[in-house]
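Here is one chain, start to finish.
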Amino acid sequence: MAAAVVLALSAPARADDFYKGKSINLVIATATGGGYDTYARLIARHLGRHIPGQPSIVPQNMPGAGGIRAANYLYAAAPKDGTAIGMLDQATYLDQVLGTPGLTADATRLNWIGRILSNSAVLYAWHLAKVKRIEDALTQELIVSTSGAASRLNWTVLNNVVGTRLKIITGYQGSSDSRLAMIRGEVDALSQPWPVLKVEAEQLLRERQINLLLQTGADKHPELAHVPNMIDLAKNEDDKTLLSLFSSPSTIGRSLAAPPGVPAERVTMLREAFTATIKDPALLEEAHRLRLELDPLDGAALQAAITGTSVAPEVVARARRVAER
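Its structure:
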């Protein structure tokens, strides 16, 4: 009896002590700069204080293959003891539905920790580009730089379903490089989450050097009621259903996940720490100072949203056809 009591009392202490003196690698699926990196590093600066043992959080950029490299690493190769988490490309689950070559990760088996921001990306073009409105892209070529799987899929689908003439360029690492390429005249356009774009490109917006063409999320951002959604380009109900599927990555947005197989008590610990972090006055003050929006969702709700998604086989079949590059 005494031994059982001792074990019961010591178990929480051992769980709390796990992270003491350790570090947690935060894998980021993009290069430095841009929305994923910005939000990942924001949360990294505060998360450790809310995890028992206060481990250090070490950001580790792992760009490659439109986010697939990082997803596969987190899923299969990263430690499964709670010392590795990641901010993956928001299209990881959509890639899985589409059967994207090279992706071996199963997004439904990842342990989702929480969402920092839902994402409605905005496609925007340099003011000298011939395309001034998205409708112009039906008759004029628009050279679009993409560094992530979500945007590349979106533009491919619009070309195949709606008939836009978006020429996709994938050679630039991250939105910062892509934006510089646009300014230099190497490409015409790129996309970024609106909360990030309005900060990073404030001067370009103020001086009207860029035109906002299209939102990719399922819902319009309140500040962009005049900018059409991707779904608005649908010609019929079947197209609308299809484009809704490709708008679904906005639910994941900028989220943290841990590999499958992490002990349940550590997943709970990480989720609770995330929830506390997202309410931390220090994080809120920094986000306000950096003018970064937050749209959090707790890990359990995010997990349910991802694992509870059901797509009709005929929609999957058509989606795979129109996603072919």
